[in-house]
Amino acid sequence: MKSVILLGIKHCGKSSQSVLLGKKLDFDTYDTDQVIVDMTGKSAREIYTESGEEAFKTAEAAACTFVSDKIAGCGRSAVIATGGGICMNPAALQILRPLGTFVFLCAKEDIASERIVREIKIDAEGNLCNLPAYIAKRNPRSEKDVRDIFHEFYIDRDRMYSGISDIKVIMDNAPKAVNADRIIAALQKLEARVN
């Protein structure tokens, strides 16, 4: 089996599924957001906030190049968890595309929305904090605003990820191991169809 590249919005389960799939398939695992931290000393969110979108995209593409080189160097397949906005970074996608299968982990909207709302913090002035950048830049004033902004975003990203992925797997509100088995079954089905 080729390497597996996990795509999808924030909170769809890419990081946790990459670890589970790596164990089940005996593949190495990489998380591009963690590689960015290792390479720059800053999180994806910090780079985006401090230096802007283009600086973040450059860091993300560099992280993907690093992962690609590591895979080429060891000759083993890997499971790669990508950042939630990689669909907006053609350079990064171009680096990852030759490595294997793009798998869109599609979290149900209500589950993903709930995970985002759960992480909201409120500062001393009553502003909502700890939001994904794409929500924060719209200055939501309430939980309802956050959910409304997320809804628009979810529809757009579902369309984008469906368009670039080889497989779309709906992530049920089920134990992580159950979803991992569903991903493997979808990969095996694709492989059988190709061969």
TrEMBL record:
ATP binds at H11, C12, G13, K14, S15, S16. GO terms for biological process: amino acid biosynthetic process; aromatic amino acid family biosynthetic process; chorismate biosynthetic process. The keyword Ligase does not apply. Substrate binds at D33, G84, R157. It is found in: Cytoplasm. Keywords: Amino-acid biosynthesis, Aromatic amino acid biosynthesis, ATP-binding, Cytoplasm, Kinase, Magnesium, Metal-binding, Nucleotide-binding, Transferase. Its cofactor is Mg(2+). It catalyses: shikimate + ATP = 3-phosphoshikimate + ADP + H(+). Mg(2+) binds at S15. GO terms for cellular component: cytosol. Binds 1 Mg(2+) ion per subunit. It holds the Pfam family SKI. Coiled coil: none annotated. Gene3D superfamilies: P-loop containing nucleotide triphosphate hydrolases. Its EC number is 2.7.1.71. It comes from the Bacteria. One of its GO terms (molecular function) is shikimate kinase activity. Pathway: Metabolic intermediate biosynthesis; chorismate biosynthesis; chorismate from D-erythrose 4-phosphate and phosphoenolpyruvate: step 5/7. Catalyzes the specific phosphorylation of the 3-hydroxyl group of shikimic acid using ATP as a cosubstrate. Monomer. Belongs to the shikimate kinase family. PANTHER family: SHIKIMATE KINASE, SHIKIMATE KINASE 1, CHLOROPLASTIC. This is Shikimate kinase. It comes from Treponema peruense. The lineage of its organism: Bacteria, Pseudomonadati, Spirochaetota, Spirochaetia, Spirochaetales. The gene is aroK.
